[in-house]
């Protein structure tokens, strides 16, 4: 069936501007031309519905584009994407003003964190939303900032950490894809098993990385105190470590 852009928008439940936005981002193929009229088909409608379904799950547009552009196992992808989106979204999402109000971080500072790549809003039905993980990160960042760290130096450190984390995450995802998602035979494994593996491994991997970073940070801090021969501070730091008060918790 053929549709003009207004008819396609009505059938898909989106605005004409949304369709043009998706075309501009490469998510939706251009229409056919019938003279001066742009004509869309059922393939465009189906693609729009998939985009909207994944966007409502909180998936970034870059991820949606990658999923649309490559051959896939639809059943496996849908189950795994639901698991990924569930981990990212949590129980609810927040607007930027809501995030600012609940975290105590002013909106201009949240925008600075977005510009630095530290926060990444989701697009849910065309609206920018933030996850509960973003809320926890904003609160933690505010606590560190309140300790007296200069904002510019703290942001620079956070950006360096974010870049290193992105590189590490890409390698971890590739490892998961090779050894879990595709299995030893190179084909797709059971979608339910893949999703369960992801749901189990994500918190374990997060705990592993967080504990390693904490251990390294504490060890380097103790080394510096020892070099400075600050015996009182060193004794208090060692007591805090031995008491277990520095243990990292994951949800």
Tell me what you see in this structure.
It contains eleven helices and five strands, in the order H-H-E-E-H-H-H-E-H-H-E-E-H-H-H-H. With 251 residues, the protein is mainly α. The model has no long low-confidence stretch (mean pLDDT 79). It is elongated, with a radius of gyration of 23 Å. Helix content is 68%, strand content 6%.
Radius of gyration: 23 Å
Spatially, the strands of the biggest sheet line up as 3-5-4
Portion in strands? 5-15%
* Average pLDDT metric: 79
Please give the largest β-sheet: 3 strands, antiparallel
Number of helices: 11
Query: In sequence order, what are the helices and strands, one letter per element?
Result: HHEEHHHEHHEEHHHH
Helical coverage, percent range: 55-70%
Q: Are there runs of 5+ residues with pLDDT below 50, and where?
A: none
What would you call the shape? elongated
Q: Which structural category fits the helices and strands?
A: mainly alpha
How many E strands?
A: 5
What is the first-to-last residue Cα distance? 49 Å
Concise structural overview:
By secondary structure, this protein is mostly helical.
SSE order and pairing:
Elements (H helix, E strand, L loop, with lengths): L4 H8 L3 H9 L7 E3 L2 E3 L2 H15 L4 H9 L4 H16 L3 E2 L1 H8 L3 H9 L6 E3 L2 E5 H15 L4 H31 L9 H37 L3 H13 L8
Antiparallel strand pairs: 1-2, 3-5, 4-5
Helix pairs in contact: 5-10, 10-11
